[in-house]
Amino acid sequence: MRNIRYLSLATEDYERTTIYRDLFRRHVDGELLGEIRDALNHELVLGRSYFKDKIEAMTNRQARLGIPGRPRVEEEGAGYYVE
Predict the structure, then answer these.
(1) Domain extents for the chain?
(2) d(Cα 43, Cα 37) in Å, to the nearest integer?
(3) Residue 62 neighbours by CB distance under 10 Å
(4) Of 28, 30, 46, the residue nearest 38 (C-alpha)
(5) What is the SS3 assignment for 24?
(6) pLDDT tens digits for the chain (83 residues)?
(7) Distance (Å, rounded) from C-alpha 59 to C-alpha 43?
(8) Whole-number Å distance between alpha carbons of 28 and 34
(9) Residues 6 or more apart from 42 whose CB is under 8 A from it?
(10) CA-derived radius of gyration, the chain
(11) Spatial CB neighbours of 10, under 8 Å, sequence gap ≥ 6
């Protein structure tokens, strides 16, 4: 089944194929490709800081990598009790 967006590229098959191929002729540089892969692998948002801030506010989810490990205990005199 053909996609309606693909069909809307042009009326003639040859022209449509040429336009579609041109969409993918440009090579994505390694740094950008790495950023895209990292964002996808960690299920994070790809974009500038202000965009990530908006997404975090809208979704109430973290949009960037956090600090690895357990949160620090900030209370005075607090500690972990292990038997």
Answers:
(1) 4-59
(2) 10
(3) 14
(4) 46
(5) coil
(6) 568 888 899 999 999 999 999 988 888 888 999 999 999 998 899 999 999 999 999 999 888 888 788 877 776 666 666 66
(7) 13
(8) 10
(9) 65
(10) 23
(11) 16, 18, 19
Question: Of 48, 45, 37, which is closest to residue 65 (Cα–Cα)?
Answer: 45
Cα–Cα dist 11/74, whole Å: 65
Residue matched to tokens 């053909």: 2
Q: What is the pTM of this model?
A: 0.50
Tokens of 14: 């040859």
Cα 81 from Cα 18, distance rounded (Å): 67
Which two tokens mark 74? 């900030």
